[in-house]
Amino acid sequence: LFDVFFSGVQHVWGIEIFTKSEVEAVNGTSVKLTCTFSSTEPVSLQTASVIWDFRSITADIYERILYYQEVPYPIEEGLFNGHVQWSGDIKRKDASITLNNVRPAFNGTYFCQVTNPPDVHANIGETVLRVVDKVTLSEISLLGAIVGGSCVVILVFLGVFVAVRMYKKRNKEKDIEMRVEEYRNKQSNLYLYTFDLD
């Protein structure tokens, strides 16, 4: 009896689900929500089923967005109508989906559940999606490019200015040295000339 009970527990908890904890997507693009699983039982199209649910980060909304049993059944009304696409392969233990043309309203947590009888209970995979604004990213990039470019230009001008100043200073010092040497030579010649006259 104990062996039968223990065997039953193994079957109940035979599925493990793996998802990314957080995913980021640019507003208006597509993003894949990865969900893979392992099962102690053989996996087939006829036995395995997948459920994807969504909980909004801003509103108290919890809704089913896709059900899979041999074929995918994406939601056909509401927020996700036309946005959910099956991207998995049950035979390869892949239950992933793709969200097309994501919107800020898609910010929230996505739950992936898989059953493969007699493996019917498992952990629930959770992925938090953050939809970011493409315009904001472009503006930040543009601002960064402007600031960076300005710094480079200033550094170049500063380098040129310092180099010119040093070049002029060096030439001036050489000119002074040459004049001093020339003066000394004149003085020496004058002294010799005076000495000869005497």
TrEMBL record:
Localization (cell): Membrane
Gene3D superfamilies: Immunoglobulins (2.60.40.10)
Coiled-coil residue windows: none
Source organism of the structure: Poecilia formosa (Amazon molly)
Primary location recorded for the protein, binned into one broad class: membrane
Stated name of the protein: Ig-like domain-containing protein
Record SMART domains: IG, IGv
GO biological process: cell-cell adhesion
